[in-house]
Amino acid sequence: MYDGITMLSFLMGEKVAIIKNVPAEICTDCGEAYMKSHVTGKVETLLDCIEELHSEVSIIYYEAA
After folding, report:
1. Strand 33-34 vs strand 15-26: parallel, antiparallel, or unpaired?
2. Structural contact between residues 55 and 13, judged by C-beta atoms closer than 8 angstroms
3. Closest-CA residue to 40 (of 62, 56, 59, 61)
4. What residues contact residue 48 under an 8 Å CB cut-off, 6+ apart?
5. Which residues, 6 or more positions from 1, have their beta carbon under 8 angstroms from its beta carbon?
6. From CA 29, how far away is CA 15, in angstroms rounded?
7. Domain range enclosing 49
8. Which residues on adjacent β-strands are paired with residue 23?
9. Count of Cβ atoms closer than 10 Å to residue 36 Cβ
10. CB of 35 closer than 8 Å to CB of 12
11. Residue 57's domain is classified under what CATH number?
């Protein structure tokens, strides 16, 4: 595993959300990205904010708080 970044995409009903530059641990064997719990918590908060928008597609950048 090594530290890196990934892009996440979510289909939420009729909406599409993309979060770029998400910190993750990347598997050296398969390339799968794994997030730590504090990162997952922030992603969930961002998704809650996106749900309130009147937009079909949202592309946002993860920024460490």
Report:
1. antiparallel
2. no
3. 62
4. none
5. 25, 26, 27, 28, 34
6. 33
7. 2-61
8. 5
9. 10
10. no
11. 3.10.20.860
Count the domains in the chain: 1
Structure tokens given for 31: 């390339």
Residues in CB range of 44: below 8 A, 6 or more apart: none
pLDDT of residue 23: 96
How does DSSP classify residue 17? E
Tens of each residue's pLDDT in the chain, 65 residues: 999 999 999 999 999 999 999 999 999 999 999 999 999 999 999 999 888 888 999 999 998 54
Distance between CA atoms of residues 13 and 25, nearest Å? 28
Beta carbons within 10 angstroms of residue 40's beta carbon: 12
Say if residues 50 and 58 touch (Cβ distance below 8 Å): yes
Contact 22, 11 (CB under 8 A): no
